[in-house]
Amino acid sequence: MPIAAERNKEKIAVEIKSFIADSDISEFHTALGQYLNYYQAIEEKEADRVLYLAVPIETYQDFFQLSFVQRTLHRYQVKLIIYDPKCEEIRLWIK
Fold first, then answer.
1. Domain parsing of the chain, residue ranges
2. pLDDT given for residue 54 in this prediction
3. What is the pLDDT of residues 17-33, one digit of tens each?
4. Which of 17, 40, 88, 93 is the most exposed place for a label (fewest CB within 10 A)?
5. pLDDT value at residue 10
6. CA–CA distances in Å: residue 75 to residues 4, 11, 36, 39
């Protein structure tokens, strides 16, 4: 279930993914499916809340730069939070 928070008076929900399984593509399929399901649920219940998918910086720099991943993110307008799990900090917000 996504974590809900408020960022600069913008209500957000964040689906955090670790991408620690052996297959990034399998993790991506799961993450995207969950994101889309949560997006629909939030849209119905809390239309003013913005959903983000949070992924580790290493996964973003490697796997998320692949063209098919970029096309998918663009097609479904996935908003991202890129985090550093070692430093436990957010590195980038992508709307």
1. 3-94
2. 97
3. 999 989 999 999 999 99
4. 88
5. 82
6. 24, 23, 12, 14
Q: Which amino acid is at 61?
A: Q
Q: What are phi and psi of 51, to 5 degrees?
A: -95, 135
Instruction: Give the phi and the psi of residue 21 in degrees, each rounded to 5.
Output: -70, 170
Element (H, E) at 40: helix 24-45
CATH class entry, domain 3-94:
alpha beta
Burial 16-30 (b: 16+ CB within 10 A, else e): ebebeeeebeebbee
Identify the DSSP state of 83.
Answer: E
Amino acid identity for residue 17 in this structure: K
